[in-house]
Amino acid sequence: MAAPKAGLFLLLPGAWPVWLGLALCSVPGGGGSSGEQGTCGCSASRGSGSGEAAAWRYSQEANAPQQPARGTLVGGQMVSIPAGVFTMGTDEPAIQQDGEGPARRVRLSRFYMDRYEVSNAEFEKFVDATGYLTEAEKYGDSFVFEGMLSERVKTEIHQAVAAAPWWLPVKGANWRHPEGPDSDISNRMEHPVLHVSWNDAVAYCVWAGKRLPTEAEWEYSCRGGLENRLFPWGNKLCPKRQHYANIWQGDFPTNNTGEDGFKGTAPVSAFPPNGYGLYNVVGNAWEWTADWWAVHHSAEEMHNPKGPLSGTDKVKKGGSYMCHKSYCYRYRCAARSQNTPDSSASNLGFRCAADTLLDSL
Ligand SMILES: *[C@@H]1O[C@H](CO)[C@@H](O)[C@H](O)[C@H]1NC(C)=O
Ligand SMILES: [Ca+2]
Ligand SMILES: [Ca+2]
To answer: Which of 76, 127, 170, 347 is an S-S bond match for 320, by CB 3.0 to 4.6 Å?
Structure first.
């Protein structure tokens, strides 16, 4: 059984050079205890929040093989996502207070989705063309995970988020300087842009002739044509002992082993794409969506839902390189979290969607 299965990898498109070189998963199936589900940056914003434990049930039958639908690649950067109906959310929520349930049928029209998280290189084109100043640059600071900071930067900080003390507001941290003034992105141009607020993300997408995806579009894209699976590729965290996403291995927040090849962000094209050809949908950087945040949802079937009419926070999806099952089991398609639209952090980025394609794409 094992040998022919392993051989299948050779038949798949050869676009995963980074992933192929990675170490094997030491925790097949994503074992480890379901502990507290807190704020692994999931709520680090110019506001904050916290969480509590939730059980997670592994479903055998839900793990049965299923043929994913195929998105159609259009141009280099966007994928045509077919119209369809899918099950949004879950009736087995892992994090109760996040409003992951109920599972409900959602019908969507066709749309386009960026293959990749927006990279530093792409964001720089926007800034060069428009002179745009991000909110982190205007505020003069942004949240950075303590584990990424130099000792010099850390000594200058005297304030932290009570519920998540590993988040520090760093003066001079922004998309060009992800860990503060003594850091830069010169060797990370193909990594996701970070420290962009929801407002910044909208400005970029509008400039590109696009828009942010709704939460429903994002989740449909995440599922890649599979029904009721935990991850974009299925229910096993590490099928065939391979890493499929950039998350955290080791004890959070003290020991990041980087077993998947990356302690921080990875290039936006790293790891295998999902059934629609989308990369790093879960993990790497959190991704803003267009929707306002609410935790109560109707179980009725919806058509192109756009979320609540108003709110204080925006929905972000997918988790990040900082997510670990013990603390932030949010690298699942149904998982969700929120931040105020002006907040920014060192694990939060975005990708755009569109109704039509511009010729330039
Ligand atoms: C980090 O975790 C790995 C794997 O569990 C372990 O081998 C290593 O000793 C740990 N390092 C530290 C500094 O605790
Ligand atoms: Ca990682
Ligand atoms: Ca992502």
So the answer is: 347
Query: To which H or E segment does residue 73 belong?
Result: strand 72-74
As a whole number of angstroms, the distance between CA 213 and CA 202 comes to 10
CA distance 277 to 224: 8
pLDDT digit string, tens, across residues 284-318:
999 999 999 999 999 999 999 999 999 999 999 99
Cα atoms found within 13 Å of the Cα of residue 337, Cβ hemisphere only: 32
236 C-alpha to center of ligand 1: Å? Answer: 24
> How many angstroms is it from 254 CA to the middle of ligand 1?
9
Instruction: Among 24, 248, 251, say which to mutate for ligand 1: greatest number of ligand atoms within 8 Å of CB.
Output: 251
Rounded Cα distance, 355 and 348, in Å: 24
Report the nearest-CA residue for atom 5 of ligand 1.
250
**Distance between CA atoms of 96 and 219, rounded to whole angstroms?**
18
Distance 323 CA to ligand 3 centre (A): 11
Dihedral sign, Cα of residue 53, residue 37, residue 271, residue 91: positive
253 cis-preceded (ω within 30 degrees of 0): yes
Confirm whether pTM is higher than 0.90.
Answer: no
